[in-house]
Amino acid sequence: MKTAIEGGRGRQRTVEAAPPEPALWGLVGNTPLIPLPSSAVFDRPLPSVLLKAEWLNPGGSVKDRAALYILRDGVARGELPAKRLLDSSSGNTAIAYAMLGAAAGIGVTVCVPANASAERKALLETYGAEVIFTDPLDGSDGAIRAARALATSRPDQYWYADQYNHPANPRAHYLTTGEEIWRQTAGRITHLVAGLGTTGTLMGTGRRLQELNAGVELVAVQPDGPFHGLEGLKHLATAIVPGIYDPALPSRTEFVATEDAEDAVRRLAKQAGLLVGWSSGAALVAAERVLSGRPPVPASDAVVVVIAPDSGQRYLSEYRRLAGDAV
Fold first, then answer.
1. How far is 172 from 131, CA to CA, in rounded Å?
2. Which of 7, 79, 205, 303 is deepest in the core (most CB within 10 A)?
3. Residue in 90, 279, 280, 311 annotated catalytic
């Protein structure tokens, strides 16, 4: 699209104007907070726990937010759609890129560990992304290394988005997720609980909330070891640490076993009708620990927001994990 603007001495010059964004892009964000009955997940009544239902984004995960802001940056720089967007992902960001890119005519290439769930693989194929599967034993770090190598070898073809180091990742959450939570809780939030993968969700959301109220506690959630089944989360002590991560920002870090997260997911589905992903289960375990600690948080004061990155529907092929002892 071309438009005429006023130049020097009254002359007009024609410049390329950015095309309007696809309507789909405008649907990202503004997800609801769902109050959880404490008996559905925890063994005893606890203070107010609210689940930020990020699976209600159009692409089905919290990663729609960061992907959108990274895509906007690539367009603003003139890199997209001239080149293909390239990045690594454990799955959800890849799907977000593919969906949002398809709506805007932007080609997407993603490096993804080969053990990504069948649902993730099917969605990527459906949206038309080029997928390079990497060694599952190398996890998300192997996908990162593959994307870096491809970007170095083909800079004329690919724009390397690098979600682990791109400032648009936390900025998306600073501008949207943090503001939404503050508004939805009428400023009463006392704790934010979020898993660490790229770390963008906690970094951006947490920084904004602490600007609004320095007393908000930020609880980071990690797997309890390098070998785990919590897709999307990183055990940072044994992984490539994202450049956007600030270790001084979290108030505390909780390390959660895969089995405990799985149990929380099953209980929430059976007792509250909410089917969430494994990383959401880990965050719920961390929330329970925080609220049952010493000294306990006063029930009348606490408003705990737990980020639920995606739905358990992305893991239905892993039915044995979802069913637990029933299988």
1. 25
2. 205
3. 279
